[in-house]
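Morning F.,

Quick status update on the modeling queue. The single chain you submitted on Monday has been processed. Sequence for confirmation:
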Amino acid sequence: MKNETLEEAAEYNYPNGDIWTEEQSVIRRLAFKNGAKWQAERMFSEEDLQEAFYAHNQSWIDYERWFEQFKKK
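Structure tokens below.
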């Protein structure tokens, strides 16, 4: 599967000569690209997710150890 560029995706979704005027197509493509860039800047990286997952699992393990102390009493 070929990955399309942001420019190709914008052109595909908002082509010239479609139901919009050329100016509207240009504005919509620009808004599409700016929105995609905005979203990409706010996405978590794979490393961020791995770190969060590890921290969550570690806190769960610590909780289980803590809970086992009180079960034995």
